[in-house]
Amino acid sequence: MSEPDFTVEIYQNEYLPEGGRDVNAVVTVATAGTAAAAPATAASSAEIIIVDCSGSMNAPPSKIAEARAATAAAVDVIRDGVAFAVIAGTHQAAAIFPSDGSLAVADPQTRESAKRAVAGLRPGGGTAIGQWLWLAHRMFTSHPAQLRHAILLTDGKDEHESPEDLGTAISLCEGVFSCDCRGVGTDWEVAELRRISTALLGTVDIVPDPAGLAADFSGMMTAAMGKQVADVSLRIWTPQHAAIQFVKQVAPAVEDLTGRRTDSGPQVGDYPTGAWGTGESRDYHLGVQVAAAGAVGQEMLAARASLVVSSPSGPEVLGQALVKAIWTDEEELAQVIQEGLEARKEGDEDTATAKLGRAVALAHQSGNEDTAKLLAKVVDVVDAATGTVSLKRKVDDADEMALDTRSVKTVRTKKQRDI
Q1: Which of 251, 275, 315, 335 has the highest CB neighbour count under 10 A?
Q2: pLDDT, position 194
Q3: pLDDT of residue 2
Q4: DSSP letter at 171?
Q5: Cis upstream peptide for 239 (omega within 30°)
Q6: What is the pLDDT of residue 330?
Q7: Nearest to 87 by CA among 47, 142, 33, 45
Q8: Per residue, what are the HEC states of 37-59?
Q9: Residues of the chain under the 70 pLDDT cut
């Protein structure tokens, strides 16, 4: 199987102010082709669907019914030859299919068997998400697949274990599999699922109405089936005496990768980007502080960004580019939204109004219409350009959680090489 063609481009402002040392760049990585083209060899892929079966999933009963339907819909999308399994999560974790804790190989017969097992899921018990992740880890590591992906659904808080227990489980799973997390309804904690999805290089989102689960699960599984290359790293080289300030994914969602660095040589560090398929594009904001400011007119190489994947013969470079500078405000948008919502919860209306007003102005300036629409459900916008807003007296819980979970999603506006 051939790998997708990667391109690495730098969007930059080449001119730093006199005396300036802080260099910023947006590194855009993209793969050619359509999203559904040339998926990975089925035998190299494994999928696990983790379904919350705690007692709250029966309130209302449509929640567990739609979760069963969504799981069946996702199973239908799994390609022949892909290893897969289903886990039921309560205050403990149980392998529902296959029941012996192994992974089955997808074909028409095993998909039907899995759906019959899923049809028997019944709610009862508590919630210990770390236990679910432990079992998924054990099942994934028993199989040689390179591309490992999980879908995790919950409707509640992680109440039957400590935050430390959950943290230990997340750390165990880092680098082993990616995980897309979904919360159904409004009684779950955004921060808990974001903690998982961030560490495991997945996504997090709210499904306010259980009826929307099937379409969402199908979409996630379709995207997973299009992945071709596992464990791609963004490798950053910097000159002597230069220091990396941060490396953050800023599109299609904001994720801070700074603390995920693995040293791979003198002045070289690798940052995980997860699995890739064709037709994908992601932006990374890189901040570097150079050792000394150059004289006016002097050019300086601030960094070199390469895309690297492991192979039997050693690291393979998929693409690279030289880094200079650019600025982006997408991260600020995510931050002020989350700070504004937190202030609103705490009753600090002045701070909430100021932060959410700033978010409205940033969304307006960047042309981020999706976030602007979400903000309009939480605040009344008087003047979008200046960020003049007033807090709505009554806000639907689902609207507030949608703004929180989706605040890290970004949109691309037209880039210029010199700004």
Answers
A1: 275
A2: 96
A3: 53
A4: H
A5: no
A6: 63
A7: 47
A8: CCCCCHHHEEEEEEEECCHHHHC
A9: 1-3, 12-20, 33-43, 292-299, 324-331, 410-419
> Can you tell me the distance from the alpha carbon of 294 to that of 242, in angstroms, rounded to the nearest whole number?
13
Q: What is the pLDDT at residue 36?
A: 46
Distance of CA 22 to the CA centre of its chain: 28
For the whole model, what pTM was predicted?
A: 0.82
Distance of CA 372 to the CA centre of its chain: 21
Token digits of residue 295: 């004289």
Q: Which of 217, 227, 219 is nearest to 49 (CA)?
A: 217
d(CA 137, CA 176): 7
Per-residue tokens: 223: 């995207």
CA-nearest of 201, 205, 156 to 182 is 205
Distance in Å from the first CA to the final CA of the chain: 41
Model confidence pLDDT, tens digit, residues 35-88: 444 455 666 899 999 999 999 999 999 999 999 999 999 999 999 999 999 999
Residue 409 CB neighbours (<10 A): 19
Q: Rounded CA gap, 174 and 41, in Å?
A: 23
Beta bridge partners of 231: none
Sheet harboring 268-277: ordered strands across?
262-265, 268-277, 227-237, 303-309, 316-323
**What does residue 26 show for φ and ψ, rounded to 5 degrees?**
-105, 120
Q: Residue 25's pLDDT is what?
A: 85
Confidence at residue 32, expressed as pLDDT on a 0 to 100 scale: 84
| DSSP 3-state of 386 | coil
Q: Is the peptide bond before 208 cis (omega within 30 degrees of 0)?
A: no
- Enter the DSSP assignment of 409: B
Cα 164 from chain centre: 22
CA distance 384 to 358: 9
Tell me the DSSP string of 239-280: -TT-EEEEEEEEESB-EE-GGG-EEEETTEEEEEEEEEETT-
φ and ψ at residue 390, rounded to 5 degrees: -130, 145
Give every strand in the sheet of 22-31, ordered side by side.
6-11, 22-31, 281-289, 243-251, 255-256
